[in-house]
C-alpha cells in the first residue's frame, strides 16, 4: 500500500483497524520527503527524530484504545508557527537561531489531538509574498512544475500536501496565503471566519506570543480532501484559553444544506479592478455548471452584493495599515510625504496601499466603520444566498519571479501584463469582512496546471462552505497527484 496520498480519514481508519502503524506511516512520509523534497524544498525544518518518537507514543495509545481525532497522523506545520524546540524565523536570516519556549495554541491542539509533526514548511520573507522563498531556506518549487511558484505565504504547506508529505498541514491567511497556494498546487484550504481559530503563537520573532487577535489575519487548515479540512478545523478552532475561552465554548452551526440542489449560489468571474484569466474563468464556470446540473439555484448578478471595487480598496487600506506599523521611522516619513502628495481623486489600489501604510488612528476608525457597513451588507446578502463562487486569483501558478521590488513585478493574464500586487483583490473579498472561504480544486489549465476557486460563506457558518466543498468534490473531482520531477 502506498500511504502517502491517502486522505486523513482513510489513514485514521487504517490506524484504528491495525492495518498500519503510526511508525510505518511516519517512516513512509520521511522516506518520501528524503526522496522528493530535494527538488521541491517544502520542508525547511525537518523534525524527524521527534516525529518518530511521537509516532511510537501514538501506537502505544492506539493499542490502549485511545481515540483522538488525529492520533498517529503525520502532519506538517507552517514555519511561522511557534513549535517548542524548533526555530521560528518567518524567513528572516537574523532569527535563524531563535527558538520559542512555548507552542502556538494551534500546535498545542495538534499535539493534544495526537498528530505526529514531521517538521515545518517554507514561507516567504515575513510571509509577504505569493511565492515562498527566503535567504535562509531558499525557494520552494511547485510539484506540478518546478519552475513555478507553489504560492504563498503557505506555499511550503501546499507543496508538501501535493507531494504526499503528510496528510494535513496548517497555514495562515491575510492576503490569500491559504487559498492562493491551494489554488496553485491543486489542494484544499479553508480560511476560517475571523476570530474562529486562536492565533497566539503565530507571531514574528522575537515578539512575545500574546493572546491578541491581529486585524484580518487567520490560521487555517490545508488538506487533500474537503472532508479532511473539517476534521482539522475542528481540532484547530476555538477561542484562546487565556481570553475568550475563559467564558465561551465553541458551537459552530451545522451546514445550511446537505444536498447540492438546495444551495443558492452567486457566481462571479469578473472584477472591476483586475482581469480574470481564461483558465481561472473556466474553473469558475466548471463549478457553476456542476451546481446548475445538480439543481442548485445559480445566479450571476445580485443587487445585494457589496460593491467589489470599494471592498478591494478598503481591504488594501486596512491590510497595509498593518504593514505600516512595522516600517522604520525614516521610511515611514518618506511614505507620509508620498501619501500627502497623492491626488484626492486617486482611488487606485496602489494609492490605497500607500495611504494605508500611514493611516492615522482617526482614519482607521473611519475605515473600520465602513468595513462594518460591508459586513452588514453581507448579512443581508447571505439571507438570500448560501455562498459565492469566485476566483482566488487571476491565473494558475506563475514562474518564479524574485525581483526585489514587488512594485516592479508584473503578472501575465492571457498575455497582458498586470500589476503583481493587484492580484489580492479576490482574496480580499472574504478577508476584509472576516468571512469564511474554502479553496477547492476546479480542474486544470490547458498547460496542465491546477486551477482552484473559492467558496465564500456567511460569518461563523464555516460548515456551510466546507459541506459545499465536499459535495462538489464528489461531483467534479478533487485532488490530482502531480508527477514530481526528481533529481537525476
In short:
This protein has 488 residues and is of the alpha/beta class. The chain has helices at 8-17, 22-40, 48-63, 105-112, 155-162, 179-185, 226-236, 278-293, 308-324, 329-340, 349-357, 361-381, 425-433, 462-476; strands at 43-46, 74-78, 116-121, 133-134, 138-139, 168-173, 188-191, 218-223, 264-267, 297-299, 387-391, 410-413, 416-419, 437-444, 450-456.
What can you see in these coordinates?
- 36% of the residues lie in helices and 14% in strands.
- The chain folds into two domains: 8-260 and 461-476, Amidase signature (AS) enzymes, CATH 3.90.1300.10; 262-391, no CATH class.
- Helix 8 links the parallel strand 9 (264-267) and strand 10 (297-299).
- The chain is globular and about 65 Å long.
- It is of the alpha/beta class and 488 residues long.
- Strands 1-3-2-6-8-7-14-15-11-9-10 form an eleven-stranded mixed beta sheet, with helices on both faces.
- Helix 5 (155-162) packs parallel to helix 6 (179-185).
- It comes from Leifsonia poae.
- This is Amidase.
- Residues 24-466 form the Amidase domain.
- Pfam families: Amidase.
- One of its GO terms (cellular component) is endomembrane system.
- Overall CATH class of the largest domain: Alpha Beta
Helix content: 25-40%
Structural class designation: alpha/beta
CATH superfamily of the largest domain, by name, is Amidase signature (AS) domain
Protein name: Amidase
Pfam families: Amidase
Domain Amidase: 24-466
InterPro entries: Amidase_CS (IPR020556), Amidase_dom (IPR023631), AS_sf (IPR036928), FAAH2 (IPR052739)
